[in-house]
Amino acid sequence: PAMGWEELTWRSLEDVEFKDVYVEELDAYYWKPTFGQSIEDLEGQDVYITGYMIPVDLDEDFYVLSRYPFANCFFCGGAGPESVVDLRFADSDHRTYQTDERLTFHGNVRLNADDVYQMNYILEGAEEHPL
Length: 131
What we know:
- The chain contains one helix and eight strands; from the N terminus they run βββαβββββ.
- The protein is mainly β.
- The strands form two sheets. It has a five-stranded mixed beta barrel with strand order 4-5-6-8-7. A two-stranded antiparallel sheet has the order 2-3.
- It is globular and about 40 Å long.
- It starts with 5 loop residues before the first strand and ends with a strand.
- The model has no long low-confidence stretch (mean pLDDT 91).
C-alpha cells in the first residue's frame, strides 16, 4: 500500500448502532447512527477501501462504493447503510465508472450522523488507489 494510507475494512465500518429517529421536516423516520469508538477514531484519517462502484446519479457525479455488488447493495434493500461509502472526488475530470466495477479508492474519512440527505460514511478527496 502507498505510504500513509491505512486500509479501511468493511468489517470496521460495522461498529455502529442505528436507531429510528423521527424527522419532522421529512415526516419520516431515518436510521440515526451512533458510531463506535473505533469508527470515531477514523474520522479525518487517510484511508483506502476496496468495493463495488454504484453510480447513483451520473448528472450529479454521485457515486458510492459498496461492500456488495449492486444486486445486493444498500439501495436495493439487501444491506445496511454501513455497507456504503459516499465518494467525494478530488477532481471532477475522473472517468465515468461502471456499475459493479471492483476498485480501491483512497481519501479522508468523514462521519455523518446528522445530515439525513448524506451517507453516514463519506470519503473526501477520493482518488483511485494505485495497487
